[in-house]
Amino acid sequence: MGQFRLGVVVTASALASVFGTTAALAQTTVTILTDDAYPPYSYMDKQQAIGIYPDILRAAAKHIAGYRIELKPTPWRRAMAQLQAGTELAAAPPYYRPLERPYIGSYSAPMLDEHVVVFCGKQIFSDTPRQRWPDDFLGLLFGNNFGFLLGGDNFWRAARSGKIHIEEAPGSRANLLKLVDKRIDCYLNDQLAVRIELGRMQSLGLLSAAQRQQIQEGPTVSTEQSYVGFTNRDNGKFPFKDDFIKKLNAALTTLHQSGEITRIVGRYLNGKN
């Protein structure tokens, strides 16, 4: 009789071990497309998603039970097209643009605040301070990352009417090289991203200290918050979407409160990423 009871205990223990292992393995994989050309926030190196936002999402993943986050570096325009088609669930880091991107139905809690600043060749400011945005910049040629919608309604209204000219390129580095070569007049992007990228370009020998000094910061245009954006065109393809967003938001809140996001940004500012 004692032997029988021992057998039951061992069997139950074995079953618990099996079910525990199965539960640990039963994770839903969530793919998040990440911008492949937006350093230091999000870019690609050796086919891997690199940058502040991928690091934030990897840190968040540690606080999300039942899900495994897969980051897929993707050209930004293609990422938006895939969300619009409903073939992919999420992309990071869109700004909040409900009118321009109606196919993004849900946004996560904010990841970071980005300060959008105008960078121009020094000669652009030689005749006027150009502090009024965008009125003091009419007639100029702006570089823009593919698929980016920075600058505000008045800026894009001026662009549509031909009062401001836009020329797109794949990423910050391409636009900054064009700015150095005076092929564009100005470039509009996040202040931190541009400052770090200019430092990297200088360390790689892509521009000299003298060339860097020819790029001048203009007015701050806006402060933008970055999110993970989720498609609303999936027709139920991702039934776990609402649950995942809820858990991601809780994880991002934890990272903000613990200071982890500040530490991640600090590593990039100090060149220790």
UniProtKB/TrEMBL annotation:
Residues 29-272 form the Solute-binding protein family 3/N-terminal domain. SUPFAM superfamilies: Periplasmic binding protein-like II. Residues 1-26 form the signal peptide. SMART domains: PBPb. Keywords: Signal. It comes from the Bacteria. InterPro entries: Solute-binding_3/MltF_N. This is Amino acid ABC transporter substrate-binding protein (PAAT family). It comes from Paludibacterium purpuratum. The lineage of its organism: Bacteria, Pseudomonadati, Pseudomonadota, Betaproteobacteria, Neisseriales.
